[in-house]
Amino acid sequence: MVKMSPASRFRYALFGLTALALLVLCGLGGMFGHIGEHAFRFILLFSATWIVALALLVLIPRDLSRSRRGLLVFALALACRLLLLPHPPSDDVNRYLWEGRVVREAMNPYVYEPTSPALQDPAKDDPYHAGINHPHLPAAYPPLMLLLFSAAAGFAYHPMTVKLVMLLFDMGTLDDNRVVLVGGQDGWVGSDRFLDMLPLNLVDTFPHMLACRRRHDRAHAQE
Fold this sequence. Notes:
The protein is mostly helical and 223 residues long. Helix content is 57%, strand content 0%. It contains nine helices and no strands. It has helices spanning 6-31, 39-59, 66-84, 92-104, 120-124, 143-155, 159-172, 199-205, 214-222. Residues 178-192 and 205-223 have low confidence and may be disordered.
């Protein structure tokens, strides 16, 4: 068993406390209401998460192997996302579920917008139809995304289903989120996957359900 120096023990302890602080912040983010209703508090929370994430970048133990560093970051990234799951999704999720249901009804969401008379019957009892943004516009997502929404809606017609699907895809692409910084493989960066811990990635994924608003930009361009 390798005996750690006092400096190494201190570094591990400091890293552990910082990782705990990040998890606490993500837990608070999961309990946070809609961002538009608490904009200033969200800015404070988001800024604090950035500071803690950057501290983790510096404090990650340097004596861990590359594989162990990757596993550690993967575990932290997954824990952060799970803690953010309770956060209210954006209204985009209503369209995800609705268009998935339309596909399952053997209708074409590229032809029939949510307000189309042809969809009047399924819309009557749909809990998410009224919350669809830009309901006068047909689907703008690519076909494979609509099939994914359809599968998710068929499994369980609930926003949490979409969140879990997004989580699976997000975690599956962690290895592609690499950043090249000065220091190389054994430099001070410690892990090329720490991009996955940055608040922008976390917030883009769950509090807004990947609502980077590209669809809104397209919608406004068509109006």
